[in-house]
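hey so u asked for the seq, here:
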Amino acid sequence: MKTLLLSHSDGGGGAGRATDRLFNSLCENAGIDVRMHVDFKHSPDPRVFINSGFGAEQLRSLRIHTDGIPAFVTKHENPHLFSPGRASALSARKIDSLNADILNIHWTNYGYLSIENIGKIQTPFVWTLHDMWAVTGGMHYEPDHLSTNTENYTGIEKWVAKRKLKHWTRPFHVVTPSNWLSDVVKASEIGRNWSVTCIPNPLDLDLFKPIENSQRTAGVKNIIVSLGGNLSDSRKGFDLLKEAMPLVQEPTQLLVLGHDCAPADWPRDMPPTRWLGYLNDQELVQAYSQGDLAIVPSRQDNLPQTATEATACGLPVVAFNIGGLPDIVESGVNGYLATPGDPTDLARGIDVILRNNELRSTMSGNARQKAESLWSPKVVAKQYEKVFTSSCTTVGR
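ran it, structure tokens below
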């Protein structure tokens, strides 16, 4: 079975990393021929290809800027979280000519695939969703996911939603990494007739695993935290972290992933903090090996890879009971799920785990066991292979 993955990129952001990890899992563990087309290539793998030729880079830049124009013109209140889906790196005709038995579409924004071209594709495809965009009026995340019905939209978001309903006339088969996102799709007007399969993102468990690290400060516990790329994105809970940490009683040090310096509004009463910057996978494992637990303070999230990576490395995870976090964290078993939006309860969970070495050790073992049972590349690849096979046999060209 010839399988072609379509993705904005094979690295960089969270969706790109997840897509690259799935690509490698399929190459190594499934009995299928896999390639990937991207707009931005990070890996040297020759099976990953990109539009090339004279002017390709300039056209790529033009598509990205063009796709941002509608939000700019209409002065959308969240332009960085909104995509109109107008520009397209590939036409449907070009995609259908690439000789694939099955397509696996991933993150399509920043001008990678337009709404119209997705609707015209004739090759059978499975769409892996990395956020809510496919079932909203252009937002990657809606504050209230129950609002994903066109009658609730106005202006530019109504325009995007109507285009989806017009051009996406056949039911799609989508994969969601979390049960939360599955429920979002099923509750939406756009996706309510789609077939939905929940398959988590894979992790290389030979790389992401507990390792010994002697770089510790005596008497101080290290907390791994990731705040996303944009600290002003309230969805990632930067403000909740700032409220929670001064309430923690145990001596701690924060190790922050993804940022190399403190923001201007970093409070003085925060614990000592090391800013680790953007790390590759090998560097991430070294960072996790220094931690005693990980915090994910998101208000809304799909299946955050910081949480799955930390769990695979044997770290208990403290997070709010929202989105896809319950798929990762079993409160009291491999971490703590706090009351949504309650920084006091988040601090309580941190103290409970840090104060009890025996509990933390038990949670560490449980965390690794969960990773092995759910996120192993072999386990995930088999689930995808089953979905691909089913889609090939039930959807005609």
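The radius of gyration is 21 Å. The chain has a mean pLDDT of 92.
lmk if thats what u needed
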